[in-house]
Specification:
about 525 residues, Rossmann fold, Serine Threonine Protein Phosphatase 5, Tetratricopeptide repeat, binds ligand DLZ
Length: about 525
């Protein structure tokens, strides 16, 4: 029977559930570029360009197979600008007997789909792009006091058999993170990023994005993401060869002007459907089994995907819509303007924001321990930080962004995800990067105008949140240290912090560099 199959922009996988029983003789695949999706937050220009280009290539490949694709472009004169409007129009155009979709990645779109069900013969299929279904995660979470990633991850290892020797973890341990925190030696030159020259389709999209969303954050020149499955597989293969053998060791390291290091750069493609989570994990396991990469590297990488990625997605669906509403540390400060402009004299933040603007990418430690850590210890309002992350990264959809930022980065969930906030002083950044060497502030100084702001903001954060956090066993060490500080030192911390925080402005026009 004639079926209309709607493929959303992050479902670009040939084996997506929507297409499993596709009949090219009768069915129509619908894909729509809509303004509402490009502007519900003002996404980074590269994020929109990546997705539109990937959508157009995916449609082209389906057509080459003989599938009828009804592709609505952003500029089509009748385009209503929303998923709902376009689905309705397409339904009238094609008068199908039914409409098939796959569960969306975001709650926002899930709610839209509930409305469509009222007026259309709609079938919503389970999202098969994840190894753990929503129902399965909820069954795992049911009745558990805490929902720790590590427990979930071990369960997933056993269930998939990935890096297992029978019932035991490969190498006798579940986790090799202790070996994965090395600073990057100066002598090591990380591999070049595999860059893709935009073809005619992508160039047209880049022009469209510049014309329509030119005032959004981020640069478009230098766009070099792969936008097809074929090219995404090349990135994966390149990573397995050049990156993965050192990924584990240096996954937490940071270096000025080296944004990519040994990272895979596959998250935008994975989250848009060009790559599949299981195939990626299996490929990494194979590289280990064939002796091409050490175990700590394969395990560290697989944990990111089989563990973290599946876990945050499960948690998102299990806890939405309430999850986003908590603010456990009552953080209310506005997001400083420098998150958009990059104008700050803190070299670490300047570097991480600069590469985010240039590439719509930063790696997990830059996101967590520099950009996120600052937002945490400066007490920035969760909703503003969350929106920033959703806007600026090419891989960001709410299912992955929200738990990571709300829970992991800001501890706004009061400990659902992490047993303690990931607050750190400048010493951590100094240990894991070369940023501090080129900084106007001195990471060794604890107080005063030229001291690294992370140093006093860290202690100020502990002071301000003592009521909520001092009883946390995982924070007993720093709170004991804080007790030994005495009133004078504590007053100095508070004074430094408020002087610095007062110089931050959320307002572009009032912006002034906080000069040391
Ligand atoms: C992110 C995004 C953007 C910018 N534009 C579109 C679009 O025009 N059409 C589309 O189908 N999807 C787009 N997306 C991805 C959707 O926002 C994503 O599919 C939903 O958030 C559901 O996860």
């Amino acid at each position: 029977s004639k079926t209309l199959r709607l493929i959303l922009g992050d479902q670009l996988h040939r084996r997506i559930a929507t297409l499993s029983d596709l009949d090219p003789d009768t069915d129509i695949v619908l894909m729509v570029e809509v303004r509402a999706e490009a502007t519900y937050v003002r996404h980074h220009k590269q994020k929109i360009a990546f997705l539109f280009a990937a959508m157009r290539h995916f449609a082209r490949d389906l057509e080459a197979e003989g599938v009828t694709v009804d592709y609505v472009r952003l500029g089509d004169p009748e385009n209503t600008g929303s998923f709902g409007g376009e689905l309705e129009r397409a339904f009238e155009r094609h008068t199908p007997e039914r409409v098939v979709v796959t569960e969306p990645g975001e709650w926002r779109v899930w709610e839209m789909m509930q409305d469509w069900r009222e007026s259309l013969p709609l079938e919503i299929r389970e999202d098969n792009r994840f190894l753990c279904s929503r129902a399965r995660f909820e069954a795992w979470a049911e009745g558990r006091k805490s929902l720790r990633m590590e427990t979930f991850y071990r369960d997933m290892r056993k269930r998939t058999g990935l890096l297992m020797e029978g019932a035991e973890p490969e190498g006798g341990r579940w986790n090799f993170d202790a070996e994965n925190r090395k600073a990057l030696p100066k002598s090591l030159e990380p591999p070049e990023r595999l860059a893709f020259q935009p073809d005619a389709i992508t160039r047209e999209v880049i022009e469209l994005v510049e014309a329509e969303f030119g005032d959004h954050f981020g640069r478009l020149d230098g766009f070099s993401w792969p936008v097809t499955r074929k090219d995404a597989l090349k990135v994966l293969a390149g990573f397995l060869k050049e990156g993965l053998p050192r990924f584990g060791d240096y996954q937490d390291a940071m270096r000025t002007n080296a944004p990519f290091l040994y990272h895979a750069l596959i998250s935008p493609m994975l989250n848009a459907g060009l790559l599949d989570a299981e195939e990626v994990c299996r490929a990494a396991e194979r590289a280990y089994r064939e002796g091409r990469v050490p175990l700590n590297c394969a395990e560290g990488f697989i944990r990111q995907i089989l563990g973290w990625r599946e876990y945050v997605r499960g948690l998102y669906w299990a806890r939405m819509p309430d999850y986003a509403r908590s603010n456990a540390l009552s953080a209310t400060r506005d997001l400083p303007w420098f998150y958009w402009s990059g104008e700050t004299e803190m070299a670490c933040l300047e570097a991480c924001i600069g590469q985010t603007r240039d590439h719509a990418y930063a790696h997990h430690i830059q996101r967590l321990m520099v950009l996120g850590n600052f937002a945490l210890i400066a007490g920035i309002a969760p909703a503003q930080v969350e929106e920033w992350y959703l806007v600026v990264y090419a891989d960001a959809y709410e299912w992955v962004e929200l738990p990571n930022v709300h829970g992991m980065v800001l501890w706004a969930d009061g400990g659902v995800m992490g047993s303690k906030p990931y607050a750190a002083s400048g010493a951590y950044i100094d240990r894991m990067s070369d940023y501090c060497r080129g900084c106007a502030y001195d990471v060794k100084l604890k107080a005063g105008l030229t001291a690294c702001p992370f140093n006093y903001l860290y202690w100020n954060f502990l002071i301000e949140n003592a009521e909520r956090l001092s009883g946390n066993p995982r924070l007993s060490m720093p709170y004991r240290t804080l007790e030994r500080f005495g009133p004078k030192r504590r007053a100095e911390i508070t004074a430094d912090a408020s002087r610095f925080l007062d110089t931050l402005s959320a307002d572009q026009s009032a912006f002034q560099i906080a000069s040391p």
